[in-house]
Amino acid sequence: MIGFMGGEVLCHPQFPEFCEYALTKFPPEQLGLWSSFPKGYDSYRELICKTFKQVFLNDHSRNDIYHAPILVAAEEVVPHRGRMFLMANVCWLHEAWSASINPNGAFFCEVAASMSLLFGTGKGWPVEKEWWMRSPKDYTEQIEEYCPKCGCALPLKRRPSIDGRDDISPGNLKRLEGRSLKIAKGKYIVHDLTVVNEPEQMAAYKDQRYRDQIAARYGMFLVLNDKGFLTPYLTKNFDPMVKKKSLFETYREESLTQGVGIDG
Question: Which residues of 161-186 are buried (b: 16+ CB within 10 A; e: fewer)?
Answer without folding.
Answer: beeeebbbbeebbebbeeebeebeee
